[in-house]
């Protein structure tokens, strides 16, 4: 068995091999590995039901489209008083949870915390593996309430086959929020990432139509979005001009045309929307392997 002080060196050697195989920088994989091991500690802590995977990090984790060059991740939690001090204390405890030796040392006394208004808290957590120090940046979005219960998902491990189970924001609500955005602003370049996110979920996840319909209805209600007949998001085909096409290419981790993405988004959402228009229920199931409702 390796001595504890040999573990960081062994981990760095393994990460260096993976970096070479995947043509990534070692620094990027150290940051990604540090995120992963923080989540292992979260899953093993008493806080595992209080902080859920959320946002772009969750989207990447469940669709295998995660960006390993980013040191940031997103979580969500319920709103709380004295949020900065409570969240800082929680993550000091999470970082201190004992797990199988993985070479990571978190500097819990150097955790930085700040807020962006009432709904976001930002953490910066120093993590060290051997001679390399990285900083994990976490954005925690705070909600009054969430209309659906979280789901457990398994997140893959970078260096071994074991996975970690964590609570995650419901994928149906992710689609509903992004649909609400493109519904209201279908032609804006800023919504290209929302189209792409829905495409990734539609091409990798199965859905119960009734559950997704309820998520959309709840989201539209919360945002006071009006149900229109044949809204532009479905009735028009949008071609990308040069500037939007450049923005589109920068988004992609796989080569796919916007026309293909738009088509799949329509296939997923139009049948549900038609039922919403006539105040009827939708009971079909989405099969991502065939990319259609059954």
Automatic annotation (TrEMBL):
It comes from the Bacteria. InterPro entries: AbiEii (IPR014942). This is Nucleotidyl transferase AbiEii/AbiGii toxin family protein. It comes from Lysinibacillus sphaericus.
């Amino acid at each position: 068995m390796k001595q504890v002080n040999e573990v960081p060196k062994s981990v760095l050697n393994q990460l260096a091999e993976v970096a070479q195989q995947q043509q990534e920088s070692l620094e990027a994989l150290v940051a990604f590995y540090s995120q992963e091991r923080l989540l292992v500690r979260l899953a093993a802590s008493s806080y595992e039901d209080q902080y859920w995977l959320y946002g772009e990090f969750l989207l990447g984790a469940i669709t295998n489209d995660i960006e390993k060059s980013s040191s940031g991740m997103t979580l969500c939690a319920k709103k709380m008083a004295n949020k900065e001090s409570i969240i800082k204390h929680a993550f000091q405890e999470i970082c201190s949870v004992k797990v199988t030796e993985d070479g990571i040392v978190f500097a819990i006394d150097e955790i930085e915390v700040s807020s962006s208004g009432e709904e976001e808290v930002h953490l910066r957590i120093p993590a060290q593996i051997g001679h390399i120090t990285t900083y994990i940046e976490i954005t925690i979005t705070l909600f009054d309430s969430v209309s659906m219960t979280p789901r457990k998902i398994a997140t893959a491990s970078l260096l071994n086959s074991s996975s970690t189970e964590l609570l995650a924001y419901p994928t149906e609500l992710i689609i509903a929020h992004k649909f609400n955005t493109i519904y209201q602003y279908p032609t804006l370049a800023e919504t290209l990432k929302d189209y792409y996110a829905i495409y990734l979920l539609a091409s990798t996840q199965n859905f119960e139509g009734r559950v997704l319909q309820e998520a959309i209805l709840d989201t539209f209600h919360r945002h006071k979005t009006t149900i229109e007949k044949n809204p532009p998001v479905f009735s028009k085909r949008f071609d990308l001009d040069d500037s939007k096409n450049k923005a589109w290419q920068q988004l992609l981790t796989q080569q796919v045309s916007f026309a293909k993405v738009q088509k799949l988004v329509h296939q997923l959402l139009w049948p549900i929307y038609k039922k919403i228009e006539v105040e009827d229920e939708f009971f079909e199931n989405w099969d991502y392997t065939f990319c259609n409702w059954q």
